[in-house]
Design goal:
Oligomer: single chain
CATH architecture: 3-Layer(aba) Sandwich
CATH class: Alpha Beta
Strand content: 25-35%
Radius of gyration: 16 Å
Shape: globular
Helix content: 10-25%
Order of helices and strands: EHEEEEHEEEEHEHEHH
Number of domains: 1
Number of strands: 11
Largest sheet: 11 strands, mixed
CATH superfamily: VC0467-like
Structural class: alpha+beta
Distance between the termini: 47 Å
CATH topology: VC0467-like
Length: 197
């Protein structure tokens, strides 16, 4: 069964709370949008778009933002009646901790615990009690993700240097797009236009 994060994973969330949230430039030292390059064709990351932010201890964390599944939250939480009120499907956030549910939302109510500023205007919620509270009180104020992305120290920088990801400045609209389908194509088209292709 998939469950919200608790226990030792909450320590990761507390550490991540110290992240720097500025997203003015597109470099891995601040929150960024990662657009899969054609070099990731025929891999599980083909045509993915991610939001990634640095961790204070090094490395990065993030979420795939354009992979909605066909699974509704109520299927993951069958004993939690308010989960039926969540309209949107759960997103595939990444391969790390695939049985854990995380939430991303614009801002956060003051009473939500362990809300971490992923970037200006976007909060990641890791705490089980906080996610339960969101589901019960404002179920559609968040987008729910199964799993996440984690990179070791210098790993993301190396992937960017190897041409696997194209970087974009991160903002709330790109981290929580209204329409996830077609996002990769539109971001790739913007790159081609900017390059004069």
């Amino acid at each position: 069964m998939i469950k919200p994060v608790s226990g030792i994973l909450a320590a990761v969330a507390v550490t991540a709370a110290l992240m720097v949230g500025a997203a003015r430039s597109a470099e891995p030292s601040s929150a960024v949008i990662l657009v899969a390059s054609p070099r990731l064709s025929d891999t599980p990351f083909e045509q993915t778009v991610l939001v990634a932010a640095p961790l204070p201890s090094g490395g990065h964390m993030g979420f795939i933002v354009n992979r909605p599944t066909t699974v509704k939250l109520e299927a993951l939480f069958p004993d939690q009646a308010p989960a039926r009120n969540v309209k949107e499907s759960v997103y595939l956030g990444g391969p790390a901790m695939p049985r854990v549910v995380f939430a991303l939302m614009r801002g956060a109510p003051d009473d939500v615990g362990l809300g971490i500023a992923l970037l200006p205007g976007v909060v990641a919620v890791f705490d089980k009690a906080a996610i339960d509270q969101l589901i019960e009180t404002t179920p559609n104020a968040a987008r729910y993700f199964a799993g996440m992305m984690l990179w070791d120290v210098d790993e993301l920088e190396q992937q960017v240097a190897d041409g696997l990801w194209e970087l974009r400045p991160a903002d709330a609209d790109s981290a929580l797009p209204a329409k996830a389908p077609g996002l990769w194509s539109s971001l790739r088209s913007a790159t081609a236009s900017a390059d004069g292709v």
